[in-house]
Amino acid sequence: MYSEMAIGSHSFFLFLMPLFISGALLPAPQNITIVSTNMKHFMFWSPVVVPGEIVKYSVEYQGEFEREYVNHSWIPIGECTGTQMTQCNITEDILATVPYKLRVKAVLGMQASRWGTLNGFFNRVTTSLIPPLLNVIADGYHLLVELEHLGPAFEFRIFYWRKGQHEMRRKVVRDSSTAIHLGTMEAETEYCVKAQTYVEAINRSSNFSEVQCVRAGDGKGIWATFAPLFLVIFILSALLFPWVIWKICRICQYSCCPNENMPDTLKLTGSPARMLNYKGEEIEKCDEFVQVLPPEEFLLLLDS
Hints:
The chain is an alpha+beta fold. The chain is 30% helix and 29% strand. It is elongated, with a radius of gyration of 50 Å.
């Protein structure tokens, strides 16, 4: 009987042993850091290694509002709940320029480690603003610049000038999805461009990018580019010009001197002499039937 109890106790102890030593099996994640560049925030930590097992992680944050008004509650980050990665993109959750706390725990089946918490706070105002990448283009006499797309929070301050002069011109843009036209250049003149970013949400600017310079052409390149097009236009014009003149003449002729057909009633069906003789015979027949009556006889005819 005692042996059966010993065996049962031993089995129960083996069943509970993973629960007692879960803290040893799943230590809290360590080396928690935040890397923030150009308003993109990522949280990193060291992996918790369990041989032959896949450990998952869950991340939570606590902002100033949660600390002061919601009893120090923590908000889970959905994309980083049950993830196997040892990093988490927290950009969409850090929406205010206030101090945030962040923590992460390891999960293996029903076991969970204690929370590993970031030392101190993270505030997005500390993000590293990198000078923007730009590409300066001389399109004929047009000065253009292409900028990398960094998102709606960024505006670009572009400075450009004629090389050798101290006067700079400035242009501020927000949309960097297409090439930006800065101005018209003088022929065979070199122009230079530099730019920086500005984020209104944190009221900070990046350093300036490296200066890039381009030289305007002398116009010969433009002529060489469009010469085939001009030649085609000239040939088509030479071929179509006579037809256009002929068409204009026909339109003018029709407008001023229209060619109308004579009605059939006005057309002569016989010779003029025959028609005159015919008319004379008709007149003589009319004369034969004309009689002049005295007034008395005319009155008698009326009374009857």
